[in-house]
Amino acid sequence: MTLPVQAYQVADSIDIRSFRSVFTAELHYHDSDELFYRIDPDQFIYVFKYGVVCFLNCEPVRIGNFLQLVRAHAKNPMEEPLNEDFIIETEAPENRISYNKIEVMRTDVEVLRLVMLNVSQSVALDYFSDHTEKLLAETNLHTRHLEQKGRLFISGRKLQRFIARTLMLRNNIVENLYIFDSPPETWEDESLSRVDAGMKRTFDLQERFRNISEGLQIVKDNLDLFRDIMKYRHSNILEWIVIILIAVEVVNLFLEKLHS
């Protein structure tokens, strides 16, 4: 049997507590960061605090209605959600994982949940990667101006906002670092552990996360440099103001003596 999996990054984050209070389907698993619903015997929905919703074997109408319901409990919902598709083939003679499909021998709920978890992590990394690339592009623009003109073409307030955007993204990733850990169930079940390791290799989760971290570090290093330049420029302006004030005072004293 073929079971389609679709994961959507719908917002920056989802209020798990608020959503749970209004959607009362059967909860197979839940904690403060995620909700795993069994809709029908072979249909599941996974909701994550970091803004991802994942569906297994759900028809398009149900997906659309559910995503619309989630938007009311989401922070900064996206007009065009990022998405990733995957396929689970059941009743396989052995577990095999390819680019967009996994063939599994066992199809208990924990295997299905584990696959959905990894697909959700992958689309979350796409989201973080997209934001990191935009920050890098903007940083490179200012760096290029600095190289060509010898000065920054950005005001202090804009630089502060840019720094805040970078820190918000870094904090968001750090806050959700747990998503890249293997769930506790894999520690006690060797079969689940192999599926989890295979999915992480297939999606390159660790490598992609490392690239995002390195990109954000580059942005941070450049922003530290920009901030130092702005401080130096501000200090120079203050020095010139002091010099001008002293010069005006000296001229005034000279004119007063001359007049007397």
Task: Characterise the protein shown here.
The chain has 260 residues and is of the alpha+beta class. The chain folds into two domains: 2-121, TATA-Binding Protein; 133-259. It is 59% helix and 18% strand. It is built from seven helices and ten strands. The longest helix has 55 residues, at 205-259. The chain is elongated. The N and C termini lie far apart (105 Å).
Distance between the termini: 105 Å
Oligomerization category of the chains in this entry: single chain
Low-pLDDT segments, ≥5 res: none
Secondary structure tally, helices: 7
Index terms:
260 residues; alpha+beta; TATA-Binding Protein; 2 domains; eight-stranded mixed β-sheet; two-stranded antiparallel ribbon; 7 helices; 18% strand
List the helices and strands and how they pair.
Blueprint lengths: L1 E8 L3 E2 L1 H7 L3 E5 L3 E7 L2 E6 L3 E5 L3 H12 L2 E2 L6 E8 L6 E2 L3 E3 L5 H41 L6 H20 L9 H4 L1 H14 L1 H55 L1
Parallel strand pairs: 8-10
Antiparallel strand pairs: 1-6, 1-8, 2-7, 3-4, 4-5, 5-6, 9-10
Short summary:
By secondary structure, the protein is an alpha+beta fold.
